[in-house]
């Protein structure tokens, strides 16, 4: 059975697909991954074929324009202007990625496509081959859930307006797909056909039910966060080992793949608060959202440029991060109280979910953090025992989750889940 996994986004978006791919390979499936070029190395040594969506999407996120959208403290007007400019610049990139999806999918002719919400052509493939696709989302609220707006709105306006946000999001997605079809000269697909798929498609949320639960639904399932087993040959250096041995209650700080226009300033804010309160911390500079200064107290702070989360999280007390789906799940998996400093859309929702779950205080967005705002939140994170207790309880429940067979059964299913008019 030929399976195509396709996703667009950051490492956190790709990770659940890599994990599903590993599961499928162990069960004898022929698996191809269609991701941005930057993720090639994560695939090529995993007995899966790699096809590229090009490097341009990730390069745009890492550009000055991308950073201004994701991590700046611009006022709302300038932020909207940046979003509009980003949309214009990304037009040609999206056009190319849509064509790449068409070319690869038509070439492979997969029996099943497992796709991310940002990949659009699988919707068209579902029209042509009903029952042949499953959407997997690492973020919640892509379908109507009582008491919540669509993910993009991240609020609660009351039931009538909440439902309207899903209609608005669906309309925007419908228009985007129809525009994409015009780009490639496809005239045989009409709006009603696309709309039917959007309303009836199969959806798996790659999210732990400890954080997100829905009512029973035949087509929509919450089947736990998917993460591949670590295969890294990474080894800690002696300085890191010594730092860990010298402190009993360490805070770990990372912004992962998120960047911002003022990493030096943001890093200093954290270091000033931590130094004032004598809290030892490990900073992961990762993609550059945090930076190592030239001079600092090496007894209180340690900097790394990369580190496996499944290695370090079990050795620290609490974590502060950007609020990606993967990092959020990983921190809780190891029982770490969590403070999220959100940068973009879904991260604000994870911030709220962590707070609502009682596993940490509610954080401020990256562009608005100050020492005055940050200090009480960090002190609460490190000193409020209830946060630790709740994180440990969530961890224990997450470790019991096992949805492998259910996911395989959904992929194996060949029945038509809907009809297309």
UniProtKB/TrEMBL annotation:
<dbReference type="InterPro" id="IPR010610">
    <property type="entry name" value="EryCIII-like_C"/>
</dbReference>
<feature type="domain" description="Glycosyltransferase family 28 N-terminal">
    <location>
        <begin position="3"/>
        <end position="91"/>
    </location>
</feature>
<dbReference type="GO" id="GO:0016758">
    <property type="term" value="F:hexosyltransferase activity"/>
</dbReference>
<keyword id="KW-0808">Transferase</keyword>
<dbReference type="Pfam" id="PF03033">
    <property type="entry name" value="Glyco_transf_28"/>
</dbReference>
<dbReference type="Pfam" id="PF06722">
    <property type="entry name" value="EryCIII-like_C"/>
</dbReference>
<dbReference type="GO" id="GO:0008194">
    <property type="term" value="F:UDP-glycosyltransferase activity"/>
</dbReference>
<dbReference type="InterPro" id="IPR004276">
    <property type="entry name" value="GlycoTrans_28_N"/>
</dbReference>
<dbReference type="GO" id="GO:0005975">
    <property type="term" value="P:carbohydrate metabolic process"/>
</dbReference>
<dbReference type="InterPro" id="IPR050426">
    <property type="entry name" value="Glycosyltransferase_28"/>
</dbReference>
<dbReference type="GO" id="GO:0033072">
    <property type="term" value="P:vancomycin biosynthetic process"/>
</dbReference>
<feature type="domain" description="Erythromycin biosynthesis protein CIII-like C-terminal">
    <location>
        <begin position="304"/>
        <end position="408"/>
    </location>
</feature>
<dbReference type="InterPro" id="IPR002213">
    <property type="entry name" value="UDP_glucos_trans"/>
</dbReference>
<protein>
    <submittedName>
        <fullName>Glycosyltransferase</fullName>
    </submittedName>
</protein>
């Amino acid at each position: 059975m030929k399976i195509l996994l396709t996703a667009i986004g950051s490492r956190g978006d790709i990770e659940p697909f890599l994990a599903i791919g590993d599961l499928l390979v162990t069960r004898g499936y022929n698996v191809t991954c269609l991701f941005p070029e930057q993720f090639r190395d994560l695939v090529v040594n995993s007995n899966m074929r790699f096809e590229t969506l090009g490097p341009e999407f990730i390069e745009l996120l890492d550009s000055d324009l991308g950073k201004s959208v994701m991590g700046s403290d611009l006022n709302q007007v300038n932020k909207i202007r940046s979003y509009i400019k980003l949309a214009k610049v990304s037009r040609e990139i999206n056009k190319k990625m849509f064509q790449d999806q068409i070319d690869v999918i038509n070439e492979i002719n997969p029996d099943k496509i497992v796709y991310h919400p940002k990949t659009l052509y699988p919707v068209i493939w579902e029209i042509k081959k009903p029952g042949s696709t499953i959407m997997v989302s690492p973020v919640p609220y892509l379908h109507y859930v009582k008491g919540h707006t669509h993910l993009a709105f991240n609020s609660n306006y009351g039931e009538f307006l909440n439902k309207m946000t899903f209609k608005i999001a669906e309309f925007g997605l419908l228009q985007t797909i129809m525009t994409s079809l015009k780009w490639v000269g496809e005239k045989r697909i009409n709006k009603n056909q696309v709309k039917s798929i959007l309303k009836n498609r199969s959806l798996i949320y790659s999210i732990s039910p400890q954080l997100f639960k829905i009512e029973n639904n035949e087509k929509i399932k919450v089947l736990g966060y998917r993460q591949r087993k670590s295969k890294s040959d990474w080894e800690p250096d002696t300085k890191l080992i010594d730092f860990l041995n010298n402190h009993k209650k360490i805070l770990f700080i990372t912004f992962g793949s998120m960047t911002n226009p003022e990493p030096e300033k943001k890093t200093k804010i954290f270091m000033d608060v931590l130094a004032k309160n004598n809290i030892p911390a490990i900073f992961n500079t990762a993609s550059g959202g945090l930076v190592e200064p030239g001079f600092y107290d090496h007894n209180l702070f340690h900097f790394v440029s990369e580190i496996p989360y499944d290695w370090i999280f079990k050795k620290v007390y609490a974590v502060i991060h950007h609020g990606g789906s993967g990092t959020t799940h990983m921190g809780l998996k190891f029982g770490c109280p969590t403070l999220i400093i959100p940068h973009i859309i879904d991260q604000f929702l994870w911030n709220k979910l962590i707070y609502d779950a009682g596993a940490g205080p509610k954080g401020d967005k990256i562009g608005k953090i100050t020492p005055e705002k940050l200090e009480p939140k960090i002190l609460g994170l490190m000193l409020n025992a209830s946060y630790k207790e709740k994180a440990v309880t969530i961890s224990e429940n997450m470790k019991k989750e096992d949805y492998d067979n259910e996911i395989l059964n959904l992929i194996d299913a060949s029945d038509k889940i809907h009809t297309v008019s």
